[in-house]
Design a protein that fits this description.
Blueprint (H helix, E strand, L loop, with lengths): L20 H24 L8 H16 L2 H11 L18 H6 L3 H13 L6 H6 L4 H4 L2 H24 L7 E4 L5 H17 L7 E5 L6 E4 L4 E5 H14 L2
Parallel strand pairs: 1-2, 2-4
Antiparallel strand pairs: 3-4
Helix pairs in contact: 1-2, 1-3, 1-9, 1-10, 2-5, 2-8, 5-8
Length: about 250
């Protein structure tokens, strides 16, 4: 069963090409959130070795978007974020250094192509134009349905398990809080996202989601504290990068 994640003001569905800085910030915030949430899922279910954790989290985050987003919102989300891929020669780095989040979780060219391929393979007809815009070659497209099916087989049972955990009352809802440094719109979007996720699935152990100042441009999952942290400095960094892309 698909769930439609409710996004405050539906800003995530506003494409970056319209030069909406808030849309860029929110889409990339949510992309980072789903990536580190995937790390939390992998940790709480003890699913992956550390050697594969970044790739596994990236694949699981794509499957989360595929499963829980409406098609148009999923496509716009992918467009705004390019799946978290940031090239070191990108124009945004003419005005700022790579963020701490990118240094820890930035997607390589190879993994970026894999993520685009898997996303395309989940709905080739409706995602063809998007895949072209993201640089997926016709040759690579031939394998993408198979690659999606492989990712689906790997991760759909995990998402099913999280839904069953919730349905049987054995789970723990994500707990969200924001400090006074958080932008009210950004905090409300993430609050709604967490609320919608809690309606769909739950982890077997508590995980907090905190938006706060950290003195770092980062989004991270802190396993020792069972906490996902969205640093307000990272959101400010995203706003700067959005403006740089359109200067």
């Amino acid at each position: 069963m698909r769930y439609i994640l409710i996004l405050c003001l539906t800003l995530v569905a506003t494409p970056l090409r319209a030069h909406n800085t808030d849309a860029h910030v929110i889409s990339n915030m949510l992309a980072a959130f789903y990536h580190v949430l995937s790390h939390a899922v992998i940790d709480k279910l003890a699913l992956s070795s550390s050697a594969n954790s970044e790739r596994d989290a990236s694949m699981l985050s794509v499957m989360l978007i595929h499963r829980f987003y409406e098609e148009n919102a999923a496509a716009d989300h992918a467009t705004d974020t390019n799946f978290g891929f940031v090239d070191k020669n990108d124009i945004r780095f003419q005005v700022s250094d790579p963020s701490d989040y990118w240094r820890a979780h930035g997607t390589s060219v190879s993994l970026f192509n894999d993520l685009v391929c898997v996303f395309y393979g989940g709905n080739p007809v409706e995602r063809n134009t998007l895949s072209n815009a993201l640089g997926l070659s016709e040759r690579r497209k031939k394998t993408c349905v198979t690659e999606f099916e492989r990712a689906f087989d790997d991760w759909e049972p995990v998402l099913d398990e999280l839904e069953v955990i919730r349905a049987r009352g054995r789970g723990e809802p994500l707990q969200f809080r924001a400090d006074r440094t958080a932008d009210p719109v950004h905090a409300e979007v993430l609050r709604h996202e967490v609320w919608a996720l809690n309606k769909a699935l739950q982890l077997p152990a508590p995980v907090d989601v905190t938006m706060r100042a950290c003195n770092r441009e980062n989004v991270s999952y802190m396993a020792d504290r069972s906490e996902i942290v969205i640093c307000t400095e990272y959101l400010a960094y995203l706003a700067i990068s959005a403006e740089a892309l359109h200067d």
